[in-house]
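On clarity, I found the account of how folds are encoded harder to follow than it need be. Since the whole study asks how a given chain folds, the encoding of that fold should be made plain. For illustration, here is how one protein appears when written out as sequence plus structure tokens:

:::
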Amino acid sequence: LAFRATSQVPEKRRVAPAAAELLGDAETVFVDEGFTPQNNRRGLPADRPLTVVTASLPVAGALAETGTVSVLLLGGRVRSGTLATVDHWTTRMLSGFVIDLAFIGANGISREHGLTTPDPAVGEVKAQAVRAARRVVFAGVHTKFGAVSFCRFAEVGALEAIVTSTLLPAAEAHRYSLLGPQVVRV
């Protein structure tokens, strides 16, 4: 997480608030681990109640002091580095919810292999968040596109929207949109 917090920061700071603009009337939101999804929290409304479900200790800590946001931290084994919870405790707890919107991150996204991450335990938490959510938004920098990791947790067609920067070529963004999601380039 420390490396991600210093890599492509200007691009991530453009992408994250644009993703948060897709909140709509959602009352319950899953915010994934990772630097870009965690930045979505900055765009969450302060003028209405919102419940945020997260496996990320940094997200929970940052939002806990916000008066209008109720934070539900998923239990489980805490991973070093990302400070996010994983394993069966996390997924079992998450399976009991219906979430209006999930902000999901990934190590890679490809048209052929979908959204991927290298860690099976992380992949299962992300997959459960996708299953629990009515709407799913992926926010990520252009270097995530075409990258593939070990564990697939969602297909591109499961996404309502993809939010990335204009560094992803328009033609490539169009190819992703043909699989179903709206692609927003900022």
User: Anything to note?
Assistant: The chain has one domain: 9-185.
